[in-house]
Amino acid sequence: MKSEQDLLITIDGPAGAGKTTLSKILAERLGYRYIDTGALYRGVAFEAIHHGIASDDDQALKEMCSRLSLRFELMDKQLRLYSGEKDITDLLRTPEMAMKASAVSARPVVRSFLLDLQREIGLEKRVVFEGRDMGTVVFPEAEVKFFLDASPHIRAIRRFKEMKGASSQTLEEVERDIIQRDRNDSTRAVAPLKAADDAVRIDTTELTLDEAIEKMLKVVEKNARNPKLNE
C-alpha cells in the first residue's frame, strides 16, 4: 500500500512495545521515510558519555549540543546515525546508553536542540517518526498518531532477545530497567511519556507483527480518505 497523501505519522510508546519494527514496516509499506528519534537522544547520550558530561549538567550539555552535528544517512536500506563524520549507530544499543538517553532527554537544553532538528526533518512530510513525545510535543499537528504499548514482561522479553549476545543482563534485570525507565519517562517534568489525546492506541501484547501493521494501515487508509478524521 503506497500512500498518495503527504502525511506526517508519529508513533510513540515505551521501550519494547514494537515501535521500531512496526515503524520501519509501516514506512516501507507506505513508501515513506522512517526516523528513529530515540537514536538522536542516544546520540546525545553517547557524546555526553564520551565527553564525561553529567546528565544534569545543563551548561555543559548546552555547549556540547551547540557543537554537535547529528544526521541520518541511508546505507544499504539501513538508517545510520552519524555524529560528525563518525557512524555511531552500532554503539547506541546498550543498557548504559538507554539509561543515559532517558536521563538527558529530561533536560530542556537537549530537548530544545533536538526539537528543532526533528521539526526540520518533518517539513517535507511523507515520514514516520518513532519516539516518545512525537505526537504530544514535537508534532502535535501530525495527521496520524499512534501510541503503542504492551505489558512490561512482554516488552522485557522482546528487548532481551534484541540484546542477546550484546549484553550480560538477565531477563529479570532487563524487565527491572524497563519498569524504571517507564517511571522516569512518564514522570519527568518535561514532555512526559503519554499518549496524545487524538492518538490511536494499540496494545501489541498479544498481536503478531502482521496483525499490528494491518491495524495501523487501516487507520492510515481511513485518514488518507478523510484528513479530518483525527481532528
Structure report:
Helix content is 48%, strand content 16%. Strands 2-6-1-7-8 form a 5-stranded parallel β-sheet. The chain has a 3-stranded antiparallel β-sheet with strand order 3-4-5. The model has no long low-confidence stretch (mean pLDDT 90). The protein is globular and about 50 Å long. The protein has one domain: Rossmann fold. It is α/β, with parallel strands linked by helices. Helix 1 packs across helix 9 and helix 7 crosses helix 8. The two termini are 24 Å apart. It has 9 helices and 8 strands.
Search tags:
231 residues; alpha/beta; Rossmann fold; 9 helices; 8 strands; 48% helix; 16% strand; globular
Strand-helix topology:
Blueprint: E1 8-12, H1 19-30, E2 33-36, H2 37-50, H3 58-67, E3 70-75, E4 78-83, E5 86-87, H4 95-104, H5 108-122, E6 127-131, H6 134-138, E7 144-149, H7 152-163, H8 171-187, E8 200-203, H9 209-225
Parallel strand pairs: 1-6, 1-7, 2-6, 7-8
Antiparallel strand pairs: 3-4, 4-5
Helix pairs in contact: 1-9, 2-4, 3-5, 4-8, 7-8
What is this entry, summarized?
With 231 residues, the chain is an alpha/beta fold. The protein has 9 helices and 8 strands. It has helices spanning 19-30, 37-50, 58-67, 95-104, 108-122, 134-138, 152-163, 171-187, 209-225; strands at 8-12, 33-36, 70-75, 78-83, 86-87, 127-131, 144-149, 200-203.
Number of helix segments? 9
CATH architecture tag? 3-Layer(aba) Sandwich
Q: If you consult CATH, what is the topology?
A: Rossmann fold
The total of beta strands comes to: 8
For the biggest sheet, the summary is: 5 strands, parallel
| Averaged pLDDT | 90
Name the CATH homologous superfamily: P-loop containing nucleotide triphosphate hydrolases
Low-confidence segments, ≥5 residues, pLDDT <50?
Answer: none
Task: Name the overall outline.
Answer: globular
Total domain count: 1
